[in-house]
Amino acid sequence: MSVSKIPLKHAVVALTAAFVLASCAVAPVAESPLVITIVGTNDVHGQILPRQGGGGLVTLSGYVEALRATQDAVLLIDAGDMWQGTLESNLNEGAAVVEAYNAMGYVAAAIGNHEFDFGPAGELSIPQGPDDDARGALKARATEAQFPLLSVNLLDAETGQLVDWENVAASVIVETDGIDVGIIGATTERALQTTIAANVRGLEMAPLAASIEREARALREAGAELVIVTAHAGSRCREFNDPEDLSSCELQGEIMRAAEALPAGLVDHIIAGHVHDGIAHVVNGISITSSYSLTYAFSRVDFVLDRDSGEVIDRVVHPPQPVCPAFDTANGDCVWVASDDLQTRAATYEGRPLSPDPEVLAVAARAEQAARNLKAEPLDARLDIPLTLKGNPESLLGNLMTDAMLASFDADIAVHNVSGGIRATLAAGEITFGAIYEVFPFDNRVVIIELSGRELRQVIANQLPRGRRRAGFSGMRVDVSCEQDVLEIDIRLDDGRPVGEEDRVRIVANDFLALGGDAILTPVMPEGGFAFDNSLPLVRDSLVAWLRGRGDLEGESFSSGDRPKWTVPAEIPAGCALPGI
Question: Are residues 360 and 387 in the same domain?
Answer without folding.
Answer: no
